[in-house]
Amino acid sequence: MARISFTEHPAAVNETYGAHFITASGFGLTMLAAGCACLLHGIFPFWFGRTGSDAITTLHRRMVTHRVGGEAPLPGTDLSVGG
Question: What is the arithmetic mean of pLDDT over 75-83?
Fold first, then answer.
């Protein structure tokens, strides 16, 4: 059985558990809001024309800026869990 650690990944990204919870929750809420905007944009093309792409750009910038080492992965890099 795999060992469950609530601190291993947060420590790997230079965060405490609490800081990681807040950051990950912010990312999740942003993605949910942007996803809803994209669904509405599909129905009403004149609404939320850039909301989804702006959210992706902002989240990517935040993640890369705060990543330990500050380097973005190369295109085609396997970003799956454990990859």
Answer: 58
